[in-house]
Specification:
CATH superfamily of the largest domain: Complement Module, domain 1
Distance between the termini: 106 Å
Protein name: Protein lev-9 isoform X3
Domain WAP: 63-116
Number of strands: 19
Radius of gyration: 34 Å
Largest sheet: 4 strands, antiparallel
Order of helices and strands: HHHEEEEEEEEEEEEEEEEEEEH
Strand order of the largest sheet: 8-9-11-12
CATH architecture of the largest domain: Ribbon
Helix content: 10-25%
Oligomer: single chain
Signal peptide: 1-20
Region (Disordered): 25-73
Number of helices: 4
GO molecular function: peptidase inhibitor activity
């Protein structure tokens, strides 16, 4: 009886192994045949975009390289224009992918760019026409109007590294349009530098340079009154940021009464007072409204200095 039970148990185990082996092999084959992704084969997507743009503290691989003076990066202007900047670079070695090159991307400066990235196909305007030679990075789309009409807006648009055409589609208008918006001292605006004409109801936003504070209404609009188009606004002033009057060290004083961005003051202990200035003689007002260096110099008596010197010598 016991021998019969033992034979049944062995038979059950063997049958179980035979049935389970193919399942295990199939599972292993399924796992090993799964293809692996190559990051270099993937086109630029949202995840890649965040990596490309979030690099303010980037240290270049080659410390001898520095951002180009011929193609500088101006991220504030890019933000005003609605352009997305990619990873900054000084050579191809700074780019993660071999498919990307270090090229000039307008106000975004030298950036890691896929030269074969395409911008979308442009539709023909309802009036006039657009001529496009290629759709890759750097390609240009040129607009023209029939006789008696003017291109109001950008006459040509470039394919940017972010995959978008620069600016907005222009329109063919007859005689009523605005020219370049007014320039405000120490400010920039959201209009593309190459745009010469602007349609009615166009709006331009102004923004003061770093270190300046915006006071007033920072917007201008193209309006037509009595058949004449003109800009109305902005009504702003860009005033330098104040660092406030700095303190003086004990037994000392400072020269200079300008306490705003870009100003400099000089510290003194006075001649014949028996005190000597220890620390930086000059401090500068920075764009964030603080003085640099942060440390205030001190006025130390000559006798204290001589005592300290003698102690160090002994």
């Amino acid at each position: 009886m016991n021998r019969l039970l033992l034979q049944c148990l062995v038979t059950t185990i063997l049958v179980y192994k035979v049935i389970s082996v193919p399942t295990t092999v199939s599972s292993v084959e399924t796992t090993t045949e799964k293809p692996q992704q190559d990051d270099d084969d993937d086109d630029w997507d949202e995840d890649d975009e965040s990596l490309e743009s979030d690099d303010d503290g980037r240290v270049y691989k080659n410390p001898r390289n520095s951002p180009s003076t011929e193609c500088p990066r101006d991220e504030e202007q890019a933000t005003l224009l609605g352009q997305k900047c990619l990873r900054k670079c000084s050579s191809d070695e700074d780019c993660k992918s071999k498919k990307k090159k270090c090229l000039c991307d307008g106000v975004c400066g030298m950036s890691c760019i896929k030269p074969d990235r395409e911008c979308p196909e442009l539709a023909q305007p309802s009036l006039g026409q657009v001529t496009v030679v290629g759709r890759h990075f750097g390609a240009r789309a040129s607009y023209s109007c029939p006789h008696g009409y003017h291109v109001v807006g950008l006459q040509s648009r470039l394919c940017q590294a972010d995959g978008n055409w620069a600016g907005a589609e222009p329109a063919c208008k007859q005689n009523i349009y605005c020219l370049k918006p007014p320039q405000i001292e120490h400010a920039r605006n959201s209009a593309l530098p190459e745009q010469e004409t602007f349609d009615l109801d166009s709006t331009v936003q102004y923004h003061c340079h770093t270190g300046y504070v915006t006071n007033g209404f920072p917007r201008a609009k193209c309006l037509a009154i009595d058949g004449q188009a003109s800009w109305y606004g902005p009504d702003i002033q860009c005033e330098p940021r104040s660092c406030g009057q700095p303190p003086d060290p004990a037994y000392g004083w400072h020269a200079g009464e300008c306490y705003t961005y870009g100003c400099k003051i000089t510290y003194n202990c006075g001649t014949g007072t028996g005190y000597e200035l220890v620390g930086k003689h000059e401090r500068y007002c920075q764009s964030d409204g603080s003085w640099t260096p942060k440390e205030l110099p001190t006025c130390v008596s000559d006798s204290a200095n001589s005592t300290t010197t003698q102690a160090s010598l002994s």
